[in-house]
Amino acid sequence: MSAQGPILYAHRGAASELPENTLAAFERGLAAGAGALEMDLHMTADGHIVVSHDPSGARMCGVDSEIRRATLAEVKRWDAGFGFVAGDGSRPHAGCGHTIPTLGEVLDAFPAVRLNVDLKQVRPAMAREAVAVIRRHGAEARVTLASFRLAPLLTARRLGYRGPTALSQIEVALLLYTPMALFRRLPLTGQCVQIPTHARGLVLACREIIDKCHSLGLRVDFWTINDPAEAKRLLALGADGIMTDDPAAIAPVFGQ
Questions:
Q1: pTM of the prediction?
Q2: Which of 39, 83, 138, 163 has its CA 20 to 30 A from that of 107?
Q3: CB-based contacts of 95: which residues, under 8 Å, 6+ apart?
């Protein structure tokens, strides 16, 4: 486990309580006990990095337009509270002023908070601009870059990004299936592994995999964990981080 202790990430903020990937959700996640924020990034047609899991506004904003084809001004007019659906089927946050934030706005709003940002968009490529935004805010040390895809991470690493990067899906696959001696010789420069507990029939949440990662100097974060009992089990196995939609439910486990 990390010498700094395990980290609780508010996954898209406190997404179980407020519209995901909004400033309000991030603020609530931290207030509920999270020590870091997890979010997803896309880039507008005019080159602004914005925080959204989906490539379009359809699900969360009720606007069937792609972010990459819209300007920042257009995206800012979308209602980011529309997509939060309560248990009774209502949309209690629609029309309440929630907007899609830019990465810069998040960095300004939470200047001392650790962020984990997932570079979602592939075309047009956005890694270079995302790195530029982070550098303008002097935030490399506290922002981990992640992506399922290898290309944006390679771009960031080639730019000399000084913050941590996660392993892409193909790098994780190499980690799982390559003998330790051979894996150590691969030119991989990521610092953390971020995985679900299970994938394609394989159990990833086990001591063997966690120990292998630690022996290579890699931290291990699991997503998305909303059950306190499961979070407790993962921490006991040596997990370095838990990503959750419900920080209020999981934070007490970290205090035990």
A1: 0.95
A2: 83
A3: 79, 81, 82
pLDDT exceeding 70 applies to what percent of the chain?
A: 98
| Residue found under tokens 């980011």 | 80
- Token pair recorded at residue 32: 């509920």
SS3 string, the chain, reads: CCCCCCEEEEECCCCCCCCCCCHHHHHHHHHCCCCEEEEEEEECCCCCEEECCCCEEHHHHCEEEEHHHCCHHHHHCCCCCCCCCCCCCCCCCCCCCCCCCEHHHHHHHCCCCEEEEEECCCCCCCHHHHHHHHHHCCCHHHEEEECCCHHHHHHHHHCCCCCCEECCHHHHHHHHHCCHHHHCCCCCCCCEEEECCEECCEECCCHHHHHHHHHCCCEEEECCCCCHHHHHHHHHHCCCEEEECCHHHHHHHHHC
Query: Which residue, among 179, 219, 217, 216, has the nearest Cα to 195 in the 3D structure?
Result: 219
Separation CA 91–CA 81 (nearest Å)? 8
- Give the mean pLDDT of 76-82: 98
**pLDDT score of 2 more than 80:** no
Q: What are phi and psi of 43, to 5 degrees?
A: -125, 135
Residue 3's pLDDT band (cuts 50, 70, 90):
very low
- 113 neighbors 30 (Cβ within 8 angstroms): yes
Taking only the tens place, the pLDDT of each residue in 174-211 is: 999 888 888 888 877 899 999 999 998 899 999 999 99
CB 45 within 8 A of CB 129: no
- Gap between the Cα atoms of 166 and 169, Å rounded: 10
Residue 1: its pLDDT value, please?
47
Output the pLDDT for position 4: 65
